[in-house]
Specification:
CATH topology of the largest domain: Rossmann fold
Helix content: 55-70%
Distance between the termini: 17 Å
Strand order of the largest sheet: 2-3-1-4-5
Structural class: alpha/beta
CATH class of the largest domain: Alpha Beta
Number of domains: 2
Strand content: 5-15%
Largest sheet: 5 strands, parallel
């Protein structure tokens, strides 16, 4: 697991840069009141050297104090659902919220990852193979202390089970929406093309979506707004993985 710590050299540089600015301010105030440059310089040197040392000790002491720090167990949030069910929108919002909290997290999305594997097909075998690669990537990030927010249709139970076995802290999030609802959201007309046979192996039309039986979280986007959905997922993360 990768972790970052404050090195002694960094603490020293921080102390020097801070005291340089503070000393200039103190010297300027002394000179303004007494009009003596020698006195201002002397006070500046004494104050600077003593407080650099004290600041350094203060920084190193606080690094040893565990109070106020939160340990974060790395995890993998795996969003699954029909095309246009709302996976990407919610996953993006969750990712941004986790970043703001300060969690080390990476975002994996179907469109981005397929650019890395442009020859990956859409048959059942191709998809399972492709999702296996994604699951492996997510598990490697997790092992190195980086959490993952992944959004993929992941239509087959076999692929989801493989990801669960590979990732230590796998959270399956089923973004639920009916075919009818997804079609109403279809501003690109992909469902219409699939119905015409122009897009083969299209999940929900010419290829099945095996609905999750026991997901860790179910988000019904016909009843919840993206903001409400985001809050549910982030709340789950805080309760389970932040301590």
């Amino acid at each position: 697991m990768l972790t970052s710590i404050e090195t002694k050299t960094r603490s020293i540089i921080k102390a020097i840069s801070w005291r340089f600015l503070a000393t200039l301010t103190t010297s300027a105030i002394v000179y303004a009141f007494f009009g003596r440059l020698d006195l201002a310089a002397a006070i500046g040197v004494i104050e600077s050297s003593s407080k650099i040392f004290l600041y350094f000790l203060h920084e190193r002491l606080w690094l040893r104090i565990k109070w106020g720090k939160k340990e974060v167990t790395p995890f993998v949030l795996w969003f699954t659902g029909l095309p246009l069910s709302g996976k990407t929108t919610i996953a993006d919002m969750v990712y941004k919220e986790l970043k703001q909290i300060g969690i080390k997290v990476e975002r994996l999305d179907s469109k981005q990852v397929r650019q890395l594997f442009p020859k990956a097909g859409y048959t059942r075998e191709d998809r399972i193979r492709h999702l296996g690669r994604v699951a492996f990537l997510a598990s490697m990030l997790e092992k190195n202390g980086i959490s993952v927010v992944a959004s993929f249709i992941t239509p087959y139970k076999e692929a989801r089970d493989f990801a669960r076995k590979l990732c230590k802290n796998y959270v399956e999030i089923y973004v639920k929406a009916s075919i009818e609802t997804c079609m109403k959201r279809d501003y690109k007309g992909i469902y219409e093309k699939a119905l015409k046979g122009e897009i083969p192996n299209f999940t929900g039309i010419s290829d099945p979506y095996e609905e999750p039986e026991n997901p860790d979280i179910t988000i019904d986007t016909e009843k919840l707004t993206p903001e409400e959905a985001k809050n549910i997922v982030v709340g789950y993360v805080k309760k389970r993985f932040l301590r």
